[in-house]
C-alpha cells in the first residue's frame, strides 16, 4: 500500500521562492492542486490540477501566468515514494474529471489529453486515489463526494475525461485531419463521421473535441501543454495559429440534451452556452462556421409537416434562403453541410425513432462518399456494465433473427418484472442506493396530463399509475422524475444507473406466427406515425415497427448497472421470457 501525504503552501512569489529543496519537490513525479475557494454565495472558485517531475520549477512557471496569479491562492502537492509518471498522469486525470463534475470551481486546465492507459498495479493506486480525493474533500478543495458527482450531468457531459483507445484514436486522427485541411485552406464540405452503439462515448468525444479546439485556439502559455500528453503536439505555435479565430459550434437536435449541454458549457472555461445550437439556429445564422460538431446526428430531420404552421414556414424559408428555391426537400443535414467548412457527425442509425429522422438510406449514401480515413467506429462500451454483448443482445432480441439462447451479463442486473408494483419498488430501492434510477416507457399511452395536470396517463393496474414527464428539458434531474414515466424524447442521450422500462401495448408478439408485430392504434406519438408526403415516404407498419423496436432498444440500453422490464402484452412477455429471467 502506498503512503501518500499532502503538503500545503501559499501560491505567492515569496512562498514559491522558499519552497523546501527536498528531492521530492524538485526531482520526483508528483501531482499538485492550485485553487481558490468560492467567495460568497453563488460564486465559483478556481482550480488547476497538474503533474510534474520538478514541482518547484513548475510553480515558478505558473506564477508567470497572470490568470493563475489572480485566481489561485493555495498549493497542495501530493507526495508518495512509489509514484511514477504513469501514476501521476492517471491521478491528475482522475482529479480533473471530479473537479469538473463537482461544479464548485472553474477548472482552468486545458485539454491536452490523457488516454485511459493501464500500468503496473493500477488497481492498487486507484484505491489510493479515492483516499486522496477524500482528503482534499475534507480540506475544502471539493464540495461533493464521488457518488454525488458521478450522478451529475456536469460529470457525465464534462470534457475533462480520459479517453479510451477507440476515442483517442478517433480524436487524434480528426485533429490531424483538421490541421491538414486548415493548412491547405481546403474549402467547404470536409466531412468526418464517428459511428458507435449506445454507450460507446460519442457525446464524450464531441464535447472533448469542442474543448480541445477551443483551448488550442486561445493557447498562449508555452509551459501549459505538457510535451508528454496525447494532444500536446497541437499546442505548438504553427497549429495554434491555424485555429485562432475559428468559429466553432456544437449542434444538438434534441431539446432536452441540448439544455443539459448548455449548462455544462456555461460552467466550462473556454466554452460558451451559445456554442450549443439547434439546426435551425445554424441555418439562420448569417455567417458560416469553420467547424460544426453534430451529436446524435441520426436525429436530424428531413422536411415534413411540423408542429405548427409557423414551424412549417420556417423550415421552408430556410430551404429557400440557403438553396434559392432549388432544393425544397433539403434536410437539416443539408443545412449544416451548407453552413460548415468542416462537419463532424456522431451517428448511430439504430437510434432513429421518428419518421422525420433522416432515412437510413440517405446516411448510407452519404457514408459511401466519406473517405475511409475520415470514418471512425467506437467499439468500447462506456455505459453499460453488461458491455457490448448486452447492447447487441437487446437489439437482436427485437430483430427478425433473435438469439438462439439466453445469455447472462455478469454483474449487470436485467430481468422481467411481472408486477408493476414490484417494478416501482425495485426502482425506488435502487434510487435510494445508487441514485439516477428512473422509470421510462414506450409512447403507448396518450399524454392526457399535458392539458389536464390532474390526469394520470399510464395505468398498469395494482394501483400503479404514472403521469408522463412533467418537464421536457432535463427530466432525468427534475425533482418529480422518480414519480413519473419518461418518454424516449426525454431520455435519449442520457445515462441512468437503473432503468425500469415499461413496454406498452404498441409492441406485441404473435406466438402462432412466431413474430413481433405492432398495434398502430396503441402508439400515441402523433409525429411518430406521420407520413413524409413531400418525399412520398409513407410510414408503413413495417417502417413503424422498426422505429418502435428502436425506441425500446434505446430505453433498454440506458442503464449503467441494470434494467428491469415490465411488459403489458402477455404474448410479448412470454417471448421475452426466453431471453431474460423473471425478477422476483
Automatic annotation (TrEMBL):
Residues 27-110 form the GIY-YIG domain. InterPro entries: AAA+_ATPase, GIY-YIG_endonuc, P-loop_NTPase, SLFN_3-like_DNA/RNA_helicase. It comes from the Bacteria. This is GIY-YIG domain-containing protein. CDD domains: GIY-YIG_COG3410 (cd10439). SUPFAM superfamilies: P-loop containing nucleoside triphosphate hydrolases.
